[in-house]
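Supplementary material to the annual report.
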Amino acid sequence: DTEVTQTPKHLVMGMTNKKSLKCEQHMGHRAMYWYKQKAKKPPELMFVYSYEKLSINESVPSRFSPECPNSSLLNLHLHALQPEDSALYLCASSTGTAYSYEQYFGPGTRLTVT
Amino acid sequence: SQQGEEDPQALSIQEGENATMNCSYKTSINNLQWYRQNSGRGLVHLILIRSNEREKHSGRLRVTLDTSKKSSSLLITASRAADTASYFCATDAATGNQFYFGTGTSLTVIP
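Predicted assembly:
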């Protein structure tokens, strides 16, 4: 299985809502990533988990809270988001924990904050 | 800040023609990767080239890396309509543990 799955595909939430994005991989990868991508822009790295521990947080606002319950699962908890947080949220995983490994991406969750 | 700038921003070619896109970056790197993204979907890894390599091939793809000029190019030969996508370079910075995607090139292949 060489797939990274993400749920939900689409999410609409109000600024006072709490929601979570979910990402799953069963390739035995030890690193997992969250990216944010605005329309017609490149993906921007948000968080990196290495062996289930948060290793990199690219100065992301605290309204985004990542969680890695086990080596196959990655969640992104959302709370009190702003309309400018509307974007495609991409999850990825890689065999190794350095950036010298190809990353496998999920299809993304398209988030709209109203 | 973004590490890579890609050129051109958009490229439109006829099926069968070759497509070349370029990536320039600012700081020394360990490696450079190229990814493809179909409209609004996840990215697909194409090729990784290490800083001590100058050229790599994979099927119809040819990637070059010139570390002295801090630039890389991706050549797609004999393009197909299915190659229509956005193409991004991504750099692993040699210092600072940083990973950035370039600005991307939008390629349209006309059947």
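The longest strand of chain A covers residues 18-25.
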